[in-house]
Amino acid sequence: MPDDTPARPPQGDQTVTAPAKRAGRKVKASVLVDLDLCKACGICISLCPERVFDRDEDGCAVAARQQDCTACRLCEWHCPDFAIEVRAERSAAEEDA
After folding, report:
1. Mean predicted lDDT score pLDDT of the chain
2. N or C end of the chain, less CB within 10 A?
């Protein structure tokens, strides 16, 4: 049954801002790109939600901002040449569990 209560406009200064990242999503990770296997397709660059990658002088992907990696592994799963490996480091809380 739909609610028939009319929506009220915000009163005063009730600005709501969404956080840039969800708490708990930050993971320390190492992103390794095998430049011998990379054919510079750019799939990893376009898929990365955290913009971790840049291109080198040959157009190959390089992990320029590893500190921003959340270990989602989209780059690793979609690389057609298997040139990317993401190694997530376990936190102390995970090791204690």
Report:
1. 79
2. N
